Amino acid sequence: MKNMWKWALILGLGIAIGAACSAGEDDDDPPPPSYDYYAYVANENSDNISAYAINATTGALTALAGSPFTAGNGSLAVAIDPSCKFAFTANYQSASVSAFTINAGTGALTAVAGSPFAAAAGAMSVAVDPSGKFAYSVGIYSTNVYAHAINATTGALTAVPGSPFAVGTNPWGVTVDPSGKFAYVANSGSNSISAFTISATTGALTAIPGSPFATGLMPYSVAIDPTSKFAYAVNRGVHNISAYSINAATGALTALAGSPFEAGGVDPVTITIDPSGKFAYVGNTLSDTVSAFAVNAATGALTAVPGSPFAAGDGPFSIAVDPSGKFAYVTSYYSDGVSAFAINAATGALTAVSGSPFAAGDGPRGVAAIRIAQ
Fold this sequence. Notes:
374 residues; 6-stranded mixed β-sheet; Methylamine Dehydrogenase, Chain H; globular; mainly beta; 5-stranded antiparallel β-sheet
């Protein structure tokens, strides 16, 4: 299976993205006394999820009791709802999304009744909106984005009226902006981003005027900065990053001055913005590195961080920055591990955490990191 994916890299197949969330606080409230931090990795070839406790001081990972947890067939991506009550995986082989409850005390996962739920053929990516009401998924063998309502009590998924919604060809990555108003899909086959407004009531999607928006060759993932001002798409076929400003009223994309920016490595497949919005990280699968960039808060322009790119295992696929912004986690598909890095708060540079890489399952792909207030 891994040899197949090695060829898939050359042919332009893609990546699912991990996500991060923070729960148990309001931004205006005093911080709670303590957090527990967890990371979750979707393992494609072993059909399960490796779950870890994150050491909040060192960033080191320790496997949770009961890990790995059984997931769907070909689990590629993992997403967490904003309350950190539920986890979802996109299952490539079974055209489905699996749903799990998260034990707030232990981080353990339990399959939701009725899971997995039908989704796109070749499911690659799943995202949850900031309200925690809706989940969106895409698959490489579909030309649609599937929308599901999330049961706030059980985590079960129900198709949104009108779902699925049309996108471009070979959609690989889906994301929802932090404002919860817009959803974006990277169409690797049609070299574009499909953009939608989200109905806050039903979760239904409506194409934004001007959509789809042109990218470079084979865009594989889209990331939005925390202020919802800027969007970034990695273009695997030309090793660069298309950058856009987001119209706050309409969600339309306009290319930034200087875009596209060089990715700094070969075969960029994923991009992640840290919670502060100061830094962006790109996984370069065929050069086994992570490129780091400083993000200009005013213009959105990207500037390579000194020392970038950083070595990141064999076949880095997905990147998650923990909600504290102190650590980054990168899955290494061909070496069955997770590389952990401390992030320099001033420069964004990465330094390997002691003990890294940490063992994962067979073919780790998506990764997400969360914190839960205790």
